[in-house]
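for the record, two folds in this file. i put them one after another cuz i was lazy. first one right below, seq on top, structure tokens after. the second one comes after a little note so u can tell where it starts
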Amino acid sequence: MAGENRMEYEHTERRREARYPIEATVIVHKSGGATIRATAVDVSSGGMLLHVEQPSDFSVDEVVTVELELPDDPGKPFAAWGVGRVVRTDGCRCGVELRAGVFDPWNAPLPDA
């Protein structure tokens, strides 16, 4: 019968790290000096998916610096930055692979040396 030997496609996940949904303000600094305000849609240990209000001119493999603000406590916001590269663009969304960064609370006391 027709269709009995039909193969079904099963999507397999290619990501190495788990992704976590988030809604946080992100400032993206492009290598050419432009700054773009975005919202983080999800984040993992290796990168993040960003949403911008209007389609932007991010280029795949473009080096960017991102600043992420997480409102942990209104008096002491958690901030982070990272250097990465754009790995994909799709209209108002942009995937950034993070290569290096700092993730520390602002104004945190330094440990005793």
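(here's the note) second protein begins now
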Amino acid sequence: MGKRRNKVARQKPDDCGIGPFPPEKELLTAPQTARVLKITTRGLSNWTRGKRPKLPSVKIGKSRRYIVADVLRLIEQFRVGKAT
């Protein structure tokens, strides 16, 4: 005879119940942020600790997260010329 399995409603792992965040408010991990900026995680750590340039972060437990809007703002600060 086949086994019966309890069907329990499972939530998606990213579903926290407060609705989706806008893309610019999403959080990135340190390795993700370093990849976007094409720098090392050590360089990112220096920027987070206040050495030039300054990149704000959110501390959650022992790890840091970076808001996409802050990363995009930093990229704009580095922009040299304007696209035509």
